[in-house]
Amino acid sequence: MDDMITRRRFVGLSVATGATILAGGKILGSLSAPGTATNPVFKIGGDLEVNRLGFGAMRLTGEGIWGWPPDRANAVKVLKRAVELGVNLIDTADAYGPETDELLIAEALHPYPKGLVIATKGGNTRPGPGQWVPNGHSDYLKQAVDKSLKRLQLERIDLYQLHRVDPKVPMEESLGALKEMQSAGKIRHVGLSEVSTSEIERARKVLPIVSIQNRYNINDRKWEKELDYCEKENLGFLPWFPVGGGRGVKSTTLDAVAKAHNTSVYQVALAWLLQRSPVMVPIPGTSNVQHLEDNVAAAKLKLTPEEWKSLAA
Question: What is the pTM of this model?
Fold first, then answer.
């Protein structure tokens, strides 16, 4: 994406985020005080500029993240609406469906608008509904990259993430395959998912890592140390289940803040994440257009320092 910001694009970003672009969206790579993040954009890998509220496409598949959605036209509508609202990062995986999610994205959005980043993942297979089996073997991952390219109708995947570290395969073997595909021009940047700080450091000895996708939300902060590491190293942090997934997010304080702003607890939870760290790029997912619009509106919600601290407690 070009570094220069046109007037038209600036207006689009402002509408989508309700915030002012600071310093061209650049992050200095040092820890900031939690709750003070205000920049509306982040540059993944230093060159992929995205609005900091993305869209996770997993829920556009069938029940159990299996098969086609019951209303395919609606899934296409949701994807199109996300882009209309200013979302320019869509996260998916070959395991969602499996395969159907990537096919839906291409069906809805190809040819892709300039600046739209499609991030996908490989290395976690789906033998059946609700089942997940890691496969980090080199040959498998290289085939997975080629198949994702074909389904997404791309010549190069901007962000390809190792969906899970396979405990039966050395990480170096899995990442070596992705490095080979990167050298071949099929992958632009590589990310990891559900990894510890030590695993990130180990991976970075094999190839550059630009992002981490771990589960994280206002009620689940297991990976707090990894988030701080990402901020220090200027790696994007893409929290999955940013509003708790099927369990949702709950607390009396959350209810009180939502009531004060006349909004939903989900919008407050997303606003809290956006203010938590400048490298945070939440990817909330939904199969409902209204929910999508509500999620995107969360970027306009600004919590007071007192509200943020009360929620962080």
Answer: 0.89
